[in-house]
Amino acid sequence: IMLAKLLIITGLVCTVVATPRVPSIVQRNGFQPINPPDSALLSISGNPPPSRLSSHPLHPPPSTPSAQVHPTPLSFFPDANAERLAAGLSPLPPARSRTTNPRSLAVPSNTPSVVQGYIQLTETGTGADYGYVSKNLNSDGEFGTTTDLDQRLIVSINLGDIEEGQFNIVVNGASPHIYFGGIVGYSSTSSDLQSGSYNYAFLGQTEASQPNSPAVSMGNSFNDATGLSRGVESAIWTYDVVSGTFSPRWVNNDHSFPTTYIGFA
Q1: In the chain, pLDDT over 90 holds for what percent of residues?
Q2: Cα–Cα separations (whole angstroms), residue 127 to 17, 75, 117, 120, 175
Q3: Cα 36 vs. chain centroid, distance in angstroms?
Q4: Rounded Cα–Cα distance for residues 199 and 125 (Å)
Q5: In the chain, how many domains are there?
Q6: Is 215 a member of any domain?
Q7: Is 258 inside a domain boundary?
Q8: pLDDT tens digits along 17-58
Q9: What is the 3-state secondary structure (H, E, C) of the chain?
Q10: I need a labelling partner for 212 at 20 to 30 A (CA). Which of 29, 240, 246, 255 fits?
Q11: Range of the domain at 246
C-alpha cells in the first residue's frame, strides 16, 4: 500500500535522527500543505513555500486531492542476512573478530564497504512511524511510502563514496535506472531551485549523474512512465559526520547549492 509520496520542499528547520551503524537523513519540521500532494519533489529552504496554484500542477494529470504534509526523518536500517538472501541479495561480509577492540573494525582502504538496508520514516520529535520508502514506483515513476514490510525498498550505500563528498544511493534490483535520485518537476520552468519559485524535483530512479553537476538529460523512471523528458541529478547525497545526517545537495545551473530538505505528503 502506497501511503504518501516522498518530497523535499522549502523552508523550515531540520532535526537529526541518527542510527548506530548507518547515518540518517535529516528532515525538517512543520511542513505546510501542498496541492496536489502525490509527487516526490525537491525544493529549497528560505521563506515558507508560496501557495501552489492550480496552474502549477506537480505532475501530469490526473491529480488527486490535497493532503497534509507530515514532517519526518528517514533513517537507514541495515537488513538481516536472511531477509537479504530471500530478496536475492548476497549476505553481508563477515565481521573480523578482534581481541583489543571488537567494535572497531578496520576496513582496508582498497576494499569498498557497502551498507545495505531500508529507509524508514519517523516523525521528528515524537518518533511516530510513517512506514518505509516503498520499492514500488507510482504511475508517474515516483517513490512513495509503505507500511508493508515486504514492499520496503532496499538500497545500498558505498561508504567509500561518502568520504568523497556527494554520492549516489543505489536501488537494489532496479533496472535500467539504478539510482535513488532527483528528477526535475513536471511543472518546473527550469532545474534551478530558488526561494519563492515553483520549481521543484521529485524522487525516483535515475541514471548516474556526476557529483557537483547541474541536472542533465538522461534516463529516469518519470520519463519511462510518462514519456516526458526531464533532467536528473543522482549524486546529490551528502553525509555530515558530526550530526550523523544524510542530506540532499541539489546543484543549480550556476553551480550554486540551495539548501534542501526531505519530507513526504
Answers
A1: 29
A2: 9, 11, 19, 11, 33
A3: 20
A4: 29
A5: 1
A6: yes
A7: yes
A8: 333 334 333 333 333 333 333 333 444 333 344 444 344 566
A9: CEEEEEECCCCCCEECCCCCCCCEECEECCCCCECCCCCCCECCCCCCCCCCCCCCCCCCCCCCCCECCECCCEEEEECCHHHHHHCCCCCCCCCCCCCCCCCCCCCCCCCCCEEEEEEEEECCCCCCEEEEEEEEECCCCCEEEECCHHHECCEEEEHHHHHHCCECCEECCCCCCCEEEEEECCCCCCCCCCCCCCCCEEEEEECCCCCCCCCEECCEHHHHHHCCCCEEECCCEEEECCCCEEEECCCCCCCCCCCCCEEEC
A10: 29
A11: 2-50+68-87+112-264
User: Which three three-digit cell numbers place residue 40?
Assistant: 516526490
Residue with cell 510518462: 226
Whether residue 10 lies inside any domain: the answer is yes
Residue that is written with C-alpha cell 548507518 in the block = 22
73 pairs with which residues across the strands?
Answer: none
Residue 55 lies in a domain: no
Of 253, 255, 251, residue with least CA distance to 44? 251
Model confidence pLDDT, tens digit, residues 120-172: 776 666 767 778 889 999 999 999 989 999 999 999 988 888 888 889 999 99
Comparing CA positions, the residue from 234, 236, 210 lying closest to residue 220 is: 234
Tell me the chain's radius of gyration from C-alpha atoms: 18
The pLDDT of residue 161 is 87
> What residue has cell string 519517523?
122
